[in-house]
Design a protein that fits this description.
With about 290 residues, the protein is of the alpha/beta class. The protein is built from 14 helices and nine strands.
C-alpha cells in the first residue's frame, strides 16, 4: 500500500482524509490553520509541520485547498510539496481551480519528475463524509490508474475525462449546471410559499416527477426555513463560477443563467452571507419577492 499525504483539511478535505485513514492508508496531514488535524491524529494520522514534510513522507499527495493561488502556494511555496517530493511522487489535486493553471502546474512538476492529476470533486459535505463523491479526473492514463485506489476511498464515481486540466474543465461544467438547479429550486420554493401552498407538500409531490433533483431533495428544506448552514460556501461557488465564466469566454459560449447566479452571489457576499451554504441563493429570491 502506498503512503499517502493530505494537504488541506477544510470542510471537504478533513472528511476525505478521514476516509483514507479508515481505508487503512498510512496518512500524513497538514493544514494551514493549526488544530484542524486533531480528530485525524486521534484516528491514527500523523500531523506534519509543512506541505514539504507531508511530501517527504508520502508516495501520493492529495491536495484539497480553496483556490488557484492556494494550490500554487502549497505546491511551490516555501516548504511546499515540490521541495519535499521525491521523483516519482504523484500529486492528486482535488481542489477546484483554473484548467489552464492546472496544466501549468503539471508542467512545472513534470520538470522535477513529479506527476500530477487533477481530480476535483462534487457531492458536497455529505459526499465527502460518506465517501460518495463524484470525482472528475484529468491526466495521463497511467497516473490516473495509480491514483484510482486512493480516489475510490473518497468517492463513488470516478471518471477519467482526458488529459491534465480536463477534470477541472468538467468541474466548471458541473458548477454551471448546479447553479441552475439551485436557482430553479429556490424560485419554485418561493413561488409555492407566496402562492399559499405548503412547501413541504409541494416538495413531496414533485419528488416523484421530472423536477426531482439532488438540490430539491437535500436543500429545499433550508430554503423553506430560510436557514443555510454550511455545506458549500457561497464564496467558493462564486470562485468556481468565475473559472467557468472564464472558460466560457475562451470557448465563445454564452452562459446567461450562470451569469445571473454570479451576480446574485455577489450580492449575498456583499451582504455578509458569503460563508453560508450556496442554497442561500434562495435568500436573494426571497428578498426580490418581498419575503
Amino acid at each position: 500500500m502506498e503512503r499517502v499525504g493530505f494537504v488541506g483539511l477544510g470542510t471537504m478535505g478533513a472528511a476525505m482524509a478521514a476516509n483514507l485513514v479508515r481505508a487503512g492508508y498510512p496518512l500524513h496531514v497538514w493544514n494551514r490553520t493549526q488544530g484542524k488535524a486533531g480528530p485525524l491524529v486521534d484516528m491514527g494520522a500523523i500531523e506534519a509541520g509543512s506541505p514539504r514534510e507531508v511530501a517527504a513522507a508520502a508516495d501520493i499527495v492529495v491536495v484539497c485547498v480553496s483556490d488557484t493561488p492556494d494550490v500554487e502556494a502549497v505546491l511551490f511555496g516555501t516548504d511546499g510539496i515540490s521541495a519535499g517530493a521525491a521523483p516519482g511522487t504523484l500529486i492528486v489535486d482535488c481542489s477546484t481551480i483554473s484548467p489552464s493553471a492546472t496544466r501549468s502546474f503539471a508542467a512545472r512538476l513534470g520538470d522535477r519528475s513529479i506527476a500530477m492529476v487533477d481530480a476535483p470533486v462534487s457531492g458536497g459535505s455529505e459526499g465527502a463524509l460518506h465517501a460518495t463523491l463524484t470525482i472528475m479526473v484529468g491526466g495521463e492514463r497511467a497516473d490516473v490508474e495509480r491514483a484510482h485506489a486512493v480516489l475510490a476511498a473518497m468517492g463513488r464515481t470516478i471518471t477519467h475525462m482526458g488529459p491534465i486540466g480536463a477534470g477541472q474543465a468538467t468541474k466548471a461544467v458541473n458548477q454551471v449546471i448546479i447553479c441552475g438547479s439551485y436557482l430553479g429550486v429556490a424560485e419554485g420554493i418561493v413561488l409555492a410559499m407566496k402562492a399559499g401552498l405548503d412547501p413541504d407538500t409541494v416538495v413531496s409531490a414533485l419528488s416523484g416527477g421530472a423536477a426531482q433533483s439532488w438540490v430539491l431533495a437535500n436543500r429545499s428544506g433550508r430554503m423553506v426555513e430560510d436557514r443555510y448552514p454550511l455545506g458549500f460556501k457561497v464564496t467558493l461557488h462564486r470562485k468556481d463560477l468565475a473559472i467557468a465564466l472564464d472558460l466560457a469566454r475562451e470557448a465563445g459560449v454564452s452562459l446567461p443563467v450562470a451569469g445571473m447566479a454570479a451576480q446574485l452571489e455577489n450580492g449575498l457576499i456583499a451582504g455578509g452571507h458569503g460563508d453560508e451554504d450556496m442554497s442561500a441563493l434562495a435568500r436573494s429570491i426571497r428578498d426580490l419577492s418581498g419575503m
